[in-house]
Every structure is written in C-alpha cells, then in structure tokens.
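Changelog excerpt

This revision adds worked examples to the README so contributors can see how folded entries look when concatenated. The first example is reproduced verbatim below.
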Amino acid sequence: MYDGSVAAYCHREKKNKGGVFRVVDSLLKELLKDAEANTKVTSFLNNISTDDITAYLSDLGYSEKQVYTERKNVQDEIQVKEKEVAFLSSSLEQQSFLSRQLAFGTKSKFKKALERLHYLSELPLVEKGRFNIYHSPYYAVPEKIKSDKTIRTFWTSYDLIPILFPQHFEETTINEVKQALDNLNQDSWVLCISQSTRNDLLNYLGKKVDPGKVLVTPLAASENFYQERDKNIIRNVLTKYAVPAETPYILSLCTLEPRKNITQIIKAFSKLVRDEKIKDLNLVLAGASGWKFDAIFEEIETSKDVKNRIYITGFVDDTDQAALYSGARMFVYPTIYEGFGLPPLEAMQCGIPVITSDTSSLPEVVSGAGIMVNPTDLEALTQEMLNLYADQSKCDKLSALSLQKSKEFTWQQTCRQTIESYKMSLL
C-alpha cells in the first residue's frame, strides 16, 4: 500500500511539481509496473478524495482498481456518525435561540461529527481486503496503520534539514517533519534517500529506531533529463524564457529560497565578471520562488554592475528543463545542505559540468564527476567558475564524467531496492 497523497494533491491543484512530488511520482510509476509489488494507492488525508487518487492514476494509465480502501468497517462508522449528526442536529433545533448561542459544547461536537462524516465519505472504497506493507513517502504513518502489528510500516526520510536548519523553513514544514519523526519506533522501517540522511536520522533519534531497519535507497533523475544536442531546440527554449540564446550562461535551477545559497552564486558571478572583466557571460536563475526569496532579489539589486546580465526565468516546464540544462556552460549549486541533490544529478544526466557543495549528501552524488567547494567559500566558488569558463577542455572532460556517473542512478534500481526492503521486513 502506497500513500499517494502528495502526488494526487499536486496533480489536482496543478501545483509546482518539485522534489518531493518527483520522488513520490517516479517511485510509484515503477512500483505500479512491477507485478511482484502488487501496489495499491491510497490517502489518509481528509483533503484528498478517492476521485483525486483515481484522476492521478488515470493520467498514468491506470484504473480505479489500483485505489485501495484504508479501513474495512468504514461503512459501519459512517452509519454511526450519521446517527450522531442527526441526534446533535435535533438537540440544537429543540433549544431556544439563546440556548443555541450558549451551547458551545454541543455545537463543537456537531461540527466535529460533520467533519468526520465528510472525511469518511471521501475515503477510498473501491477494494476491500488486507495488506502487509504500508509505505508513506512523506507524511507520518497513520496511527490506525501503525497500531496494526500485522502491517510493516515504511516511511521515506528525505532529510532532517528542517530540524537542523529551522531558520530556513516555515513552521508548517518543520512540524510535518517532526510529526513523522516522532511517530517512528522500533517497529518502523525507514528508507533514507542517502547515507548522509541515514546518519542524520540515527543521530537525531538515537535508540528510538532500529538501525537495522533504516535503509538507504538512493534517488534518480527522471528520463526527461537528457543531453539535448539540437541547438535549435535549446535556442527556442531560451527564447521562451527571455534568455539571450547567443551568450554563454551559468545555470542554477532550483526553488529560489535561502537554503539554496543563491545569493552566494550572485556574489561569485558579480566578482567573476568584475575581476576578470568578462563581457560574454550571463547568469540564469531558474525555478519557482520559494520561502523568503526577497533576499535573492535584494542581492541582485546591489550587484549593479551585473544586474542586467542576471535572468530570472520563474518556474520552468518539465519539458523545457533538459534543453535549459544542456545549453549551459556549467551548473552551479552551492546549497547549504541536501538530503540527496537531484538538481546536480539532473544536470549531470544532461552532460554539463557541475559545481556544487562538499557538504551532506552531495559527495555521494557528484564525487568523481563534479567540482565540490565549501558553500561559504566565495573565493573558491568564484575560482572554480572561472576555471570552467576559461577551459573548454576541462568542461568537456567533466561533461563526459557527468554522463557516465549519472548512469549509476536509475528509478528502476531505486524501485528494486525498495521492493527488496519490503521483502526483508516480512522475513
């Protein structure tokens, strides 16, 4: 049983399909193709309905048969709640206007009963039965599932960055991660997307979880990321996003937020252009605006000498990203901390040189194929950008290494490792 809440929500709302969506979606596609997994999809969120799950799966080419009910006696509970709502409604109607205004307790119970009834009515009811694996790729494992000892529960841990660097996140995100972590115990199985994330999780939770049940299943870049060699396609994509097609550019593609250290890229670019008196280089910052992105635009405003050579594209369609990557001179990503580092891997799969941080999980992804620097070292970042700008042979070498290294990561492999983890839990 796979929780498709994130994927169904993004599909319904047509929201920015960022990192978590890509992971949930990519792994689910592989699990659905694997007959051994026999995967069904559900959601425990009260704002995700059966129709949401079904519509998402339909777009993937699957039917409602892949939607699974999450409780056996839901119809019985609906009947109980219907009677409770009817009784509370009758009680309120029989009271005087003043009494109804004062009946806070009854009104509160009535509201909660209605909300519960609505939630139950929206639950998946396509198939009845039992399952022995429940995998939540983001939200905390529901107590109803957790309390059933016949079910092995899996939760995916992307990173502990909201815990380690709370200043970079909204309270909602911090609380979601804390809730999921607090919900783990010795019976929980955890799939970490990198060894770095596994280390952080075990250090944070200590003996609360069994280290033998905390496994690493690395991610992969989508097949939509490839080396685009058609210069006309690249030119058309650049024109679409108002980026000069004839001028070499440095690319950074990610959500524009403080943790990605984008102000450091701007400072390094400004220093590079100013010190080396470079006339034929632009900086392209691609991606949707995230939390506290104002600082990025403030940094651009202060970099008056290069302000007109920095291009903000906003959100880039999935179908355009391969061309945007492939046309770049280099990809620069001096992020503060990462659970895995999909953007560098995507860039590598498109065959361009990568400069990224030497922290957290990033060495696991780019070691031997990319350049790594301390994300706080402005001089080092500027120098490596200069080296790639000035040395085409070095760029060509790193491009070949990037393509070779990226082949080590595939979603088929991630899926197989995930299924093997499921099987291990049943031994």
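The second example, added in the same revision:
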Amino acid sequence: MTNDNTITGIKLEKDTENGVYICYVEDFSDELKGKIKEKFSELRNGAVIIEEVEENEIYDFKNTLKRFLEMYSFNKNGTPKDSKIKKGIIGELLSHILIPEILPQLKMISVMRNKEENSMKKGFDSVYFDNSNIWYCEVKAGGDENEEECIDQKNNKE
C-alpha cells in the first residue's frame, strides 16, 4: 500500500470542494487481487457470518466466488447480463474493497447481495458507519460517455 492509503495500481483523486473521491483502476495489481481474495467472502456474506461459521464451506472463497460469478453472468431467467450491468457490479465490488482501505474509520454494515434472491442488493450499494454517522454510497462505474453531462445529471435521469 502506498502512503496515502491506496492500493498499488489504484489512482485516487479527492475533490475536497465537492466531498467526493474518484477512483481509477490503472493496474489489476497483485496487491488488489490479494485484497479482493481476502475480503470477498466477508463482503458477499457478511463479517458476522464468516466469523461464526468459519469452517462452513458454503461461505469459503471458492463457493462464494462461484455464486458471485453466477449472479454476475446471468439474469434470474438465465439470459446473459448486459455489459453495462457487469461494469456496475465490478464497480460495486471494487468500492466494497477500496472504501474501507481508503477511509479506515468507516466500518461496512451492508453486504454486496440481496440474500433472498442472490442478486445485487436493492437500495444503496453500500452502507457504512463511523463513531457518530451512517454513510451511504451509490456506485457509478464505467466510462464517461457524455463529457457534457455531470454526475448529478446522470444520477437524476429516469
């Protein structure tokens, strides 16, 4: 990790005026791969479940990855997911990994899936808390298709 709490291969820009971070994945580094593998089961299943049933192979990395890839690749009806949806899923995965690394004072209190449907979670992409606040995060992933449109305009589209 570099001295600014980022992971090798990750470029982080902080916009203090607007209170936002923009994260660029420039290299899928070994450090990033290691962080994903280290945190994957916890962010998909919940930290409490992982601590309580550590020996249960349902929650191990291999089975969690298998279930994630099924959710990532196919809709509930078995049709392949659109590439834009896949980009969003990867963006959400990376946010779950990177936010606690970049802002260690925030503790995650959400998981990265809807347990009832084994699909992406409904509502905010992630929820965190610190000593006195609850923070929610909505992830926007992918390229900037319309340079003239700011993120607020994109978020307010129907």
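Reviewer comment on example two: The longest strand covers residues 10-15. Residues 10-155 form one domain.
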